Amino acid sequence: MNKILAVIMLVLFTGVSVFGQDLSGDSKKGETLFKANCTACHALDKKLVGPALKGIYTTLSSEGVSKEWIMKWIMNNEALRKSGDKRANDIYKEYSEAAMDVFEGRLSDQDIEDILTYVNNPPEPKVEEAQVEVSVKQNTDTDSSKLLLVSFVIIGIILIITLFKINTLVKLSTKGTELSSLESHKIKNLSEFYRKYQGFSYFIISILLIISLYGVWAWLMGIGVDKGYEPDQPIYFSHKIHAGENKIDCQVCHSGAKYGKVSEIPSLSVCMNCHRNISEYNGKYIEPGKSKEFYTGEIKKIYKHIGWDEENQKYTGKQTPVKWTRIHNMPDFVYFNHSQHVVVGEKTIIAGYNKKNPNQQIDVVCKACHGPVDTMNVVRMSNDFTMGWCIDCHRTTEVDMTNGYNAAYFDKLHEKLKLEYGQDKSTITVDAIGGIECGKCHY
């Protein structure tokens, strides 16, 4: 627990007078200290591990709490409890014997004064710039839509007038004896056209047959290729917020990517490592069409599925699985090991990708296959993931020869390639070590 818990608890259980004691701390410094030391267990307006702290000093004054006792509790609540202080031990039992951190040597008396000043009367939150930007963007989009609609209406009217005029001209041109002459030369059905223009008909049929065969072939080659697929999920999860705005490393959630074949979908327990204390969204970034309330609502879905009682800060034991929609699904006859690429090939995959894509540089190996995930609000399949796509990568990606194992293991192969291709052949690509052999991926 945090120093703030100390403050609140002593407020509720203390009986020493503080009337006439004014807070003279720096609220701005107090906010910084509060966020650094207290937010793991406390919020201003709601109960977490400890009680809500907004207006705590006012409440503390009405209950009669001495500032000296507060300092002792925050500095070293453990020592205060061991001294036999009844109030300190009552607070400890009240909050399920959840011991607060000892801040002696970490916080000064002035630090505590600053924190109390901030939590007692925190400044009203400013309207986020991101929200203003979203509002402006939405208004701009609305104006653009109206302009586009008006343009289509005008074009439609022009087309109708043009068609009317053409129809009038056609009627005028077919009046009189010329109509009978035209009718006598008119081809009335497809078979008559085929007999009259047999050679041309063969040509057309051949072209149509080739196009049809190509269409069937293209359709067959597209089976299982779902590039651009981005399904809606039962819980809205923005990678842009987590990986982009908050810079959370991919492997914090997808730990299996480094140590195993499958990167795995993180369990809700992983989500709760952070969202046990982050129950509301207060970030600056808001996706167009969304709101802070929307993101907060999605956090509540996590609580519902995992059975988290937010009010009492404990698990109920009632859980329901989340039916995620899978995006990347490797066929059963294909072997792919994430750790082999994330650990062994990390350096050269990143280098090879950046060389081939000078205008789209990456800093994380995951992006080579999954695209710029840190910019995606909804995750989508960014590449084809076909056999040809994999083989092309193996033919251009170098083996990391700075790795001690690879340098020793492929030493003879390296010399052989130099003899075969000349001394300038100083690199070994994955295909040279069996990266395109059938048995490497199909077993």
Automatic annotation (TrEMBL):
It comes from the Bacteria. InterPro entries: Cyt_c-like_dom, Cyt_c-like_dom_sf, Cyt_C_IC, Multihaem_cyt_sf. Keywords: Electron transport, Heme, Iron, Membrane, Metal-binding, Transmembrane, Transmembrane helix, Transport. The keyword Glycosyltransferase does not apply. The keyword Heme applies. Residues 25-123 form the Cytochrome c domain. One of its GO terms (molecular function) is electron transfer activity. The chain crosses the membrane at residues 147-166, 200-220. This is C-type cytochrome. It comes from Apibacter muscae.
